Here is the input.
Amino acid sequence: MFSGWLGRGKVVNALQLSRPPAASKITDRVQATVLYTEGTVNFYHGFDQPGILDRQEMRLLFERGEITLYEWVPVKMELHGLFQDGQLEFLNDMIGESSIVYHDRAIGNKKVKGRSNEINFDKEITFECGNTAEKQNRYSQLLISMLTDQWSWIKDHNHKRTVDGFNAVESLRIAEQATEIAQRF
Here is the structure.
């Protein structure tokens, strides 16, 4: 997914940790930093919590805010940032049903610096949409969509697949790089 968004990636740092005692051979925490053509992603996964606490979060940071996606296949999103009024209308139309939290930390000051650039905004807002309770329905929809996409390509090779062999090979390449770097430590 990140290669599709950000271009080809290269692992620049990785580690893996085993649970105590040191004699244990169970790796339960892994981390990797990947430098992509258009950005950097820090991956972390811990396998040391019970299943009821297992969760996935993806946070994308931008100059004017951040997007946090929840679960392996995102079913919930929080979009927090600095917006101008016209952007709010666009987001409301694009996102659809959502809850909106208005933050008042910047009352009176509608100009800030970000990466040495001046940012003008009208409001600091957090949009929340989706529901983790819908996870199984979303997973089912995704599986059906993926199978339909692949079947369409099998029947007609001119069909452009959303997920193709490049995605799988690129994910595996990144995972192998991370494992190799982590095992050096």
